[in-house]
Write a structure and sequence with these properties.
The complex is a heterodimer of chains A (about 650) and B (about 260). In chain A, strand 1 and strand 2 form a beta hairpin. Chain A is mostly helical. Chain A has 27 helices and 4 strands. In chain A, about 70% of the residues lie in helices and about 5% in strands. Chain A has 4 domains: about 70 residues; about 280 residues, no CATH class; about 60 residues, no CATH class; about 190 residues, MetI-like fold, CATH 1.10.3720. In chain A, helix 20 runs parallel beside helix 23 and helix 20 packs antiparallel against helix 25. Chain B has about 260 residues and is an alpha/beta fold. Chain B folds into 2 domains: about 180 residues, Rossmann fold (3-Layer(aba) Sandwich); about 70 residues, no CATH class. Helices cover about 40% and strands about 25% of the residues of chain B. Chain B has 10 helices and 10 strands. In chain B, strands 6-7-8-3-9-10 form a 6-stranded mixed sheet, with helices on both faces. Chain B has a 4-stranded antiparallel sheet with strand order 2-1-4-5, covered by helices on one side. In chain B, helix 4 packs across helix 5. The chains are: A mainly alpha (about 650), B alpha/beta (about 260). Chains A and B meet through helix 24 and helix 25 of A and strand 6, helix 3 and helix 5 of B.
Chain lengths: ~650, ~260
Amino acid sequence: MFEWMSDNRASIAAVLIILIFIAFVWSIVVGRRQARLTANDEVFGDPVRTKGGWYWAVTGVSALLLVWFYFSWGLGRAYFPDAANEMCQCAKLEEAVSPIKAALPIGSRYYKSTLLASRNSAQLDDLLGKLPGTVFTDAEKAELEEIINQIRDLIANSSNPENMVQETRDELVGLAARLDDVSVTLDAGPGDMTPTSEALAQPRWGTTFTEIPILPITSRGMLFDSASVEAAEIASAFNKVRNRFPENDQLIEGIKARINALKATNAAGTFDEKVAEERVDYVKAVERIFKRLDDGLIFPAAALQDINTAISGLDGAASRAKGGLRAVDAVFFPGAGIVKSKTQCTEQGSARWLPKPTDVVATFARLANPDLENGGGYRGFPLLWWDWMPVSGYVAFFIPDWIADVWPGEYASHGPDGTITPNFKDKLLAFAQGDVNLGYVPMLDGHIWDSLFRVIVALALGIFLGVPLGLFMGVSRFFKSFFDPLIELYRPVPPLAWAPLILTIFGIQDDGKIFLLFMVAFAIMVISARTGASGVQLSKIRASHSLGASDRQIMWNVILPNALPEILTGIRIAVGVCWGTLVAAEMLAGTTGVGFIENIARTVSDYELIWVTILIMGILGLVFDLVMRWIIKKTIPWRGMG
Amino acid sequence: MADLVCENLSMTFTNPQTGAAVNALKDINFTLKKGELLSVLGPSGCGKTTLLNLIAGFINATDGAAKLGGKVIEGPGVERGMVFQQGALFEWLPVSRNVDFGLRMKNNDPAENEKLVEKWLDIVGLQGFGDTPTYQLSGGMQQRVALARCLINDPDVILMDEPLGALDALTREKMQSLVLELWKETGKTIMIITHSVEEALLLGERLFVMAPRPGRVHKEYRLPFAERGLTESLREIKKDPKFSEVREEILTMIWNMEEEIMGRV
């Protein structure tokens, strides 16, 4: 079932998108009708105007889903499942000719030769201006100026079309003709090309980590694929073409000899350290520029004209051969289309970091599968499942080892025959360390549960310690004044600023994170309980005194229930803050948890996984809040009515 | 006899920051016999509420003493029940748990509590409202709960701090009848602080008009209207020329006091 859905995710998306679109249109129709019905009964500003209106919620959600589908290319994939493969073939051609384009003002603004000539000339001028007069002798200075002038000549000679040898001209003309042939092939169309069975057997777009199948699965794709092979050969031949001729070769030899002579002087010379360094640096700078110009890569602009025309022609032919694919690309695949790198085709633009809704669901389903042997879970740990847990582990969590240490008596030592008979103290230690079999209980397990567990334990500790302290602070001048500075000293520090310290002290296991979250929850609970306690009406307190209640009874029966709304609001806030802090803490350290998954996903740029964790956290945060809202509604119906 | 006696009762408030002292009450002397109904009137700031708080034991007198049944009052106690203006009910508890709050604090037998709650809800006219949350009750009903909650503890004195001040005119009249009824049936000593001259006349067997700076009893009346209210309609009593005469006299008195205060300020 899951396999089938995973393979056919594009078709499922196609149906879903239609349904969402219908919901979108329908909700607008319903909403407009409702708006007309109520338009006469309500004036602007009437709070009733914000009541109800679920149909606009449908409009908003469906619009969001449609935008998501569109920008993640989910829409394009649903209705044009082969488009990405074809675009990948076009991208192959684009990649193949990219080395040629790089030399022409098509791929960039200028000819590569123009850039070489202008940049190096500018650097030569700069170098000449900085010629250090103190470290070189006058003769050497003249020599260096001569070298720089000769390098300038080198540039000038290469740029002159008259200097080109016939052989190089022929080569360039030949390459331009071959490029024209490719254009002709493209214009001729795919003919009877059929995709190979190997290509057709590839997994579908998006179902594997490779994303887009690379072999062509359509005849148009085949055409582009074969054109890209020929274009790649042309490009490789173009890369080998050099503008060499005898004058320059002599010039090059001469410059090389002069530079070597200077280098030899530098090496042999007994200059003091600083002077030697400056001399070496300057000669090196001159040589570096020379090395960029001695391999015949500067062509006269006129010589590249044919190639330029041929590439423009090829672009036109490719565009014609794409046909309808061009429109599909422009409309349904927002962003920079598909780019072929060395080994794979990748989606560019929004689709790169925004996974398709169906892919997110599929990734979530894969992670949520508790069957670890068959690829479920994440890093050998399920997302949320249950398992048999030893009871002794929980007992050990609550019983500290030192209880065994302080028990009277000594631990057993090994007897004369080398065996050990454990006494009661040993058994107590084993108990405290969880080394006994106390049976097993079913317990929740998995990354999500680990995160939940940390929040729940920290929250429970925060409530059970924070609320009493807060209540006492609300009724006692001593408690208020004594504890207020202590809490206010640590509370304003963002919890994440504490995280590195706490995690270093407590280690990366649960205790550190729980303590960090406890600090957060504790402060919030103290403050909310205190606000609630100090906000109790004086007349209620006086009434309960007159009814004969003792101080303790008043605390328990009047102040606590009176502070309950603030305490519950505090818990609601604490849940939210703890949840946020926890994820960040798990990112810093740990081996389980939702934040851990996201951190790993980040390091491998697995956008789908990142989004899945974001969605999990969002949904869990929402569930927490809904539960708290429900509890608040059930437990304090009197709120705002007293 | 559980008489309420005030001997030279004085109260001076000192501002802890400035040290400025205000004479809220000076040398209050009176004896309220068991079963008497006293209403206290006066302009704002004359120390009416301070007097009540002293007797309730919420604050301690700087001089003199209040005694109940010969015992000096040193703190709040069950024998002096309180009814506040806003009811001061515990809104997280239903009506019956509000009413038996005092009994539960004494760890009484729950079954017995239940019977007493039934009885008192009946008396104050709230039969069948035992499980209703208090925040769903109207202001008048909330005051009935407050009365029942106070009376169920069987106090010697009932102290009421403007108990009907927040009610509408109709409800107020009904509640005045209820207070008179309860006074007659239970025979409790009742002390009512009020702003309304009419109410003070109707609900005062005795009536103190207090004057400010320092707070003192300016004039004392003994009135027949409360006794008459037990049998006659309150509205008939209000039409009595004698009633109007006393009302006008007291109104003029308080009016003059207010003028004096304004003049001083």
